[in-house]
């Protein structure tokens, strides 16, 4: 994916997950497209969710005000993944 955003999260020697999204910022009407790679899975995962968070920033330095609001939350996986597999993300209106 060109201009994609990649993130890695994990627990040492237990879990290593890599997220890849097609963009780093989205409009509220955009379609979120991405993949989740399960590189190491040694713990039981019951489910996985993705949250859409709206971030608004106003003001000028040093008086900047930022507000975050969770717009939606979706379950993207139910059950345990297997190492080496991946899941696709495709959400939008």
TrEMBL record:
It comes from the Eukaryota. InterPro entries: Arrestin-like_C, Vps26-related. Pfam families: Vps26. GO terms for biological process: intracellular protein transport. Belongs to the VPS26 family. This is Vacuolar protein sorting-associated protein 26B-like. It comes from Geodia barretti (Barrett's horny sponge).
